[in-house]
Amino acid sequence: MIPTYVVGRLTGNETGSYLSLDLGGTNMRVCLVRLLGKGEFTLRQRKFTIPEAYKVGLGRPLFDYMAECVGLFLDEARTDQELLPLPDGRSYALGFTFSFPLNQTAVDRGTLMRWTKSFNLPDVIDKDVVQLLQSAMDRLNLNVRVTAIINDTVGCLLANAYRDPNTQIGVILGTGNNAAYYERIPQITKWTAQHDPAVHPATRGETEMIINCEWGAFDNERRALPRTRFDARVDRMTHHVFCQLFEKMSAGMYLGELLRLVLLDLIDRRLLFDGYSSDILNRPMSVDTAYMSAIEADTTADLEHVRRVLEDVLDMPAGSSTLLERQIVQRVCALIGLRSARLGAVGLTTLLSQREDQLSDPNVKLAIAVDGSLFEHYPCYPERLKAALEVLLGEDCVRNRITLGLAKDGSGVGAALGAMLAEKRR
Ligand code: ADP
């Protein structure tokens, strides 16, 4: 539960031009967002590939490259007359989407705790990444100021909140699983134990701050959730054992692996495919969750698409599965997918209940913004999530007061909005 220093609600009537930079796993995206008011905006963006050479070794070449890309983008935007000149002494505000674990000490200050994904630049660890980016941009005289560093869940929440100010939660249901929500500042013990909210410059005059839950790490103590032996096996194969356990039960990166392990178990017990597997099925992490979508979406009488996944993707011999076996494979996918959606609903219900002040008021509408391929592409995922919310919160409440919608602009528009909110408080 990380205080993000992002305070204040959006009305949708904010205006102005703001930049954002998203450092993803393979690509980097630079955006110019023009907020037009009434929840409307225009977006100019360009993707840059991050050369592998910049992901390892020293940090400076990576930050110099990021600054160069921002410079290139600004030149193009100026040429197209999309970037208006600023009055003297002003600089363009930029929101930096940085989805690596950070020790944040201000809305525009955060030291890197460790690299994840395929990055390994040891000299950056424990350094303020905002300062590193700012220095690189200053060396190129770009006249850009990084005013906020934004987690992707926070970006998702803000992007949706600009269109719908009732947005209370932002959730990522993709490779990983995480959420951010608006909390009342006096309730944030991590904050109030250290700061007097009434006088601290980050919160003075504000009542709410966005919390990045990092809920992927929920129940790392293994006391709350009923875990199966397949969950334990998935965990054991990962780099960080006993970490991110909630994520390992529910996120896109792991569902395909859970399916693989359950199928192998059924095969070993000779309940499937006469006890035969394939080299691919035997290999850890060989089943992408996207294939579960294809399996679940199959409505043909003979489960023809399931057969194709088994034979073309998993390399099972032609004609090696019966219809009943394909039905079993489909059913296993449905159980894993359903559990994932239900766990997501549990997390959301917890956050909604945490804001009892809103939940108990029948006149308050609550919007939940979701981003990620699981929610966007996995068949029935939104319906399953909603059905589980109805069980937990009541049908009337969910149908009449809660909306659950896809918000895909988090890292671009959301980070730009974060930059705008931070600049306003400077
Ligand atoms: P990220 O979270 O990395 O920003 P995504 O939201 O696209 O990116 O999520 C990628 C994850 O979603 C991967 O784990 C992938 O296996 C899974 N995925 C991609 N396409 C699908 C699909 N059609 N159905 C289900 N899962 C998918």
Please explain how this structure is put together.
The structure is a single chain. The model has no long low-confidence stretch (mean pLDDT 95). The protein is 42% helix and 21% strand. The protein starts with a strand and ends with a helix. The chain is an alpha/beta fold and 426 residues long. It folds into two domains: 229 residues, Nucleotidyltransferase, domain 5 (2-Layer Sandwich); 186 residues, 3-Layer(aba) Sandwich (Hexokinase, domain 1), CATH 3.40.367.20. The structure holds adenosine-5'-diphosphate. The site of adenosine-5'-diphosphate has 14 residues, from helix 7, helix 9 and helix 13. It is an enzyme of class 2 (transferase).
List the topology elements.
Blueprint: E1 2-7, E2 15-23, E3 27-37, E4 40-49, H1 60-79, E5 92-98, E6 102-106, E7 109-112, H2 129-139, E8 144-150, H3 152-163, E9 167-173, E10 177-184, H4 189-192, E11 208-212, H5 229-236, H6 245-250, H7 252-268, H8 279-282, H9 289-297, H10 304-313, H11 323-354, H12 356-359, E12 366-371, H13 373-377, H14 381-393, H15 395-401, E13 402-406, H16 410-424
Parallel strand pairs: 2-5, 5-8, 9-12, 12-13
Antiparallel strand pairs: 1-11, 2-3, 3-4, 6-7, 9-10, 10-11
Helix pairs in contact: 1-2, 3-16, 5-7, 7-9, 7-11, 9-11, 11-14, 14-15
This protein binds adenosine-5'-diphosphate.
In short:
This protein is of the alpha/beta class and 426 residues long. It has 16 helices and 13 strands.
Summary keywords:
ATPase_NBD, 16 helices, binds adenosine-5'-diphosphate, globular, five-stranded mixed β-sheet, alpha/beta, single chain, six-stranded mixed β-sheet, 426 residues, Nucleotidyltransferase, domain 5, Hexokinase, domain 1
